[in-house]
Design brief:
The chain is of the alpha/beta class and about 230 residues long. It is about 60% helix and about 10% strand. Strand 3, helix 4 and strand 4 form a beta-alpha-beta unit. The protein is elongated, with a radius of gyration of 33 Å.
Length: about 230
């Protein structure tokens, strides 16, 4: 596990020294780390403009500089950013505007792993994209609520979550429905091909009639004129 000097100092009751950062430029983090004066850097995301790729770059810079990274975000609106920051390498999260016990409990759950024992919300990236998962529901329940996914797919995902084999089950779901789509396309083509042949045959017949009908008409006219 990656060394977390900030946590070690806190656990030992030792003072810590950090500085604020409003820029998402990773070079600044490395420069601060080379001074050897600070234990951590607080990225004030509550006020700074950034995107999710900036969090990845900052997380790598913290690692290279040997610094603990802390991110300050507004808990009420940017809960998913806390999860994303931890995944990027930030080792601390400072939630602003905590006003109630419920706010504090939700903030704690945001940084805990999503397991039955910890009852946290911090899971894999695709789970964070499903809004109801952050409310404590499973991925299968969230997908079922949309009414878009087939029942079989939802049931297979539910089994994968229950057995702890969600990635493998998602691959199985993808392969199953890919084969299902391929089978449906093959059946559709098998039905369409005879219709295409009939249409093409009809077109050829019409063309032949259009070509030979004038010839027959001329032949009949010549015969009648001869008589």
């Amino acid at each position: 596990m990656r060394h977390n000097r900030f946590r070690e100092l806190l656990n030992a009751g030792q003072p810590t020294l950090g500085t604020h950062l409003l820029s998402c430029w990773p070079t600044v983090v490395e420069l601060v780390g080379h001074t050897g004066l600070y234990d951590y850097i607080e990225f004030s995301a509550e006020y700074a403009p950034f995107d999710l790729h900036d969090l990845d770059n900052l997380g790598r810079a913290f690692h290279v500089a040997g610094l603990a990274g802390m991110i300050k975000i507004e808990q009420s609106e940017y809960l998913h950013q806390a999860m994303r920051a931890i995944g990027s390498g930030f080792q601390s999260v400072l939630f602003a505007d905590i006003r109630t016990v419920e706010d504090a409990a939700l903030a704690v759950r945001a940084v805990r792993a999503e397991t039955p024992a910890t009852r946290g919300l911090h899971g894999v990236g695709m789970r964070r994209d499903v809004g109801t998962v952050r409310e404590g529901k499973s991925l299968a329940q969230s997908l079922e609520k949309t009414g878009v996914f087939p029942d079989l797919a939802v049931e297979m995902i539910d089994v994968g979550e229950s057995t702890g084999a969600l990635p493998q089950m998602l691959n199985s779901v993808a392969e199953f429905f890919e084969e299902d789509v391929q089978t449906a396309l093959t059946a559709a083509l098998a039905l369409i091909e005879p219709a295409i042949l009939i249409v093409m045959g009809s077109v050829v017949v019409v063309i032949l009639i259009a070509l030979y009908l004038p010839i027959f008409s001329l032949g009949q006219a010549s015969t009648m004129g001869g008589h």
